[in-house]
Amino acid sequence: xxxxxxxxxxxxxxxxxxxxxxxxxxxxxxxxxxxxxxxxxxxxxxxxxxxxxxxxxxxxxxxxxxxxxxxxxxxxxxxxxxxxxxxxxxxxxxxxxxxxxxxxxxxxxxxxxxxxxxxxxxxxxxxxxxxxxxxxxxxxxxxxxxxxxxxxxxxxxxxxxxxxxxxxxxxxxxxxxxxxxxxxxxxxxxxxxxxxxxxxxxxxxxxxxxxxxxxxxxxxxxxxxxxxxxxxxxxxxxxxxxxxxxxxxxxxxxxxxxxxxxxxxxxxxxxxxxxxxxxxxxxxxxxxxxxxxxxxxxxxxxxxxxxxxxxxxxxxxxxxxxxxxxxxxxxxxxxxxxxxxxxxxxxxxxxxxxxxxxxxxxxxxxxxxxxxxxxxxxxxx
Length: 381
Fold this sequence. Notes:
Blueprint: H1 7-17, H2 20-27, H3 34-45, E1 63-65, E2 68-70, E3 74-76, H4 89-100, E4 105-106, H5 114-119, E5 126-130, H6 135-147, E6 152-156, H7 166-170, H8 178-190, H9 193-201, H10 221-231, H11 241-247, E7 251-257, H12 260-268, E8 273-276, H13 290-301, E9 306-310, H14 316-324, E10 329-332, H15 334-366
Parallel strand pairs: 3-10, 4-5, 5-6, 6-7, 7-8, 8-9, 9-10
Antiparallel strand pairs: 1-2
């Protein structure tokens, strides 16, 4: 039996427990997955600059992001359909984040609703919104998030349309599987009995919590894709951020920035932060890795707004590399989803604990005691 010691180990446990289609939905990327691979390979290529005899014995991983104190520079980023990976998955992840004193961000396309996640905790969470055509529906979602106490809105701008994800097509996640494909999907589900008992059979009926009015049943992923195709809006421009500001008095974080001029535009429209991200390699395949463009975005706007990053973070050493490259904190996506799929709330908590321990060790070997001291000198160039 595997005793998990790393995020990669939890990935293997998630792969064993989940039906193949759902695992590939977490794990995969767009087209040939070149950008997905670059997120990891470019992080691996960075070398850390070890220092010795620095007296780094009082390690403090705490930081502040958007005025909120974090026990470590991590945010559980928005992961769609997380409630399909474990029973009431978003609730379990939010509880783990609260216990670890890091923020949790709820996706628009979650299984658990804003209200259900709010009722399960005592700390305000972040809310993520996609660019959708039905502004009335979007306004209602923002009002519900405000009523739940959310103070930070993550506005995802790099998904005006869905890119083709070959794994999802092959697994029939996006429809068109045909009779044999549907039979294979059914066998894939019933052969994973632990997941079957925990998620579809156990607990509440599965719905797309925040979108239940539009897509009543989460058993129809094809219906969800149809709604997404109809609602995601490629016509949105920076001027539409005025509408967001009119309906959101709190922090606005623009997620999906890879270009310096786009980062400057985010600062000009009054965003509090940007997330340097290529959507985990799930959109424009061939786009650069997040870590490779992070330093120049930091140089361009680092004094005007806070900078976060996501894409490929799998260890505390990766976190240190991101901080050294200009991020104030990192967002986790797949990493916490693997933990959730493997062991529910406990798995997410263990992922956060592993990353914190790894970051503490890394900081000791870098010779720094506070995360704010991890600068460009922590990288050996």
